[in-house]
Amino acid sequence: MGVLVMEVVDDVVVHTSVTGMKEGDVDEGDTVEALAVVLADPLIAVLIHRAHPLGQVRRWRHPPVYRPLVDLSTMEERHVIVTYRLDRATNHELCAQLEPDLMSAIRHPTGIPPLVQVLSVLHFLASGSFQTTVAIASGMSQPMFSNVLSRVLSAMLKHMCSYIVFPQVEDLPTVKGDFYALDISPTS
């Protein structure tokens, strides 16, 4: 890299001192515009080199490939219930019901399958863990899990009235009696 020191009077180069440049590149009496042309080529070369170091060509990023880490078929039923708080059949029913809402969110073929989305959110809700921990266990990034969490909860809200029913005032004595009739004694 050369160093150029010059004295300019009325847009004319009066005196130059150049190190690292070829003889004849800059002479006294040249105009500043001529000097700019001489210096522009190396400057553009430096800028291009900094933008693409070592001659690297910018390549398009490939979409991320999702590798599922969650597979219900390999888990014991007891482990499924502990992890997701629902049995295998109920998990599949819930996924089937939410799938139309979740399939529209998949933008490319490597998107996260609806089953994995639902299971990840169920694990998050059941464990009370952090998003990052659940995301890693599910094979996705935390920002992606945050988006999945929002989509699955929105889909669940659409179907909430089918599963959550609050008793009417006239039904309260019956509900109260049924609750007290439950055997909630600890088992050993």
How would you summarize the topology of this molecule?
Elements: E1 3-9, E2 12-19, H1 32-51, H2 77-84, H3 88-103, H4 114-127, H5 131-138, H6 142-158, H7 160-163, H8 172-181
Antiparallel strand pairs: 1-2
Helix pairs in contact: 3-4, 4-5, 4-6, 5-6
Summarize the structure in words.
The chain is mainly α. Helix content is 52%, strand content 8%. It is built from eight helices and two strands; from the N terminus they run E-E-H-H-H-H-H-H-H-H. The chain has helices spanning 32-51, 77-84, 88-103, 114-127, 131-138, 142-158, 160-163, 172-181; strands at residues 3-9, 12-19. It has a two-stranded antiparallel ribbon with strand order 1-2. Helix 4 packs antiparallel against helix 5 (131-138). It is elongated and about 100 Å long. The mean pLDDT is 75.
What would you say about this model in short?
With 188 residues, the protein is mainly alpha-helical. It has eight helices and two strands. The chain has a two-stranded antiparallel ribbon.
The major sheet is characterized as: 2 strands, antiparallel
| Amount of helix | 40-55%
With strands numbered from the N-terminus, the spatial order across the biggest sheet is 1-2
Secondary structure: number of strands: 2
Amount of beta strand: 5-15%
Give structural attributes.
188 residues, mainly alpha, two-stranded antiparallel sheet, 8 helices, 2 strands, elongated
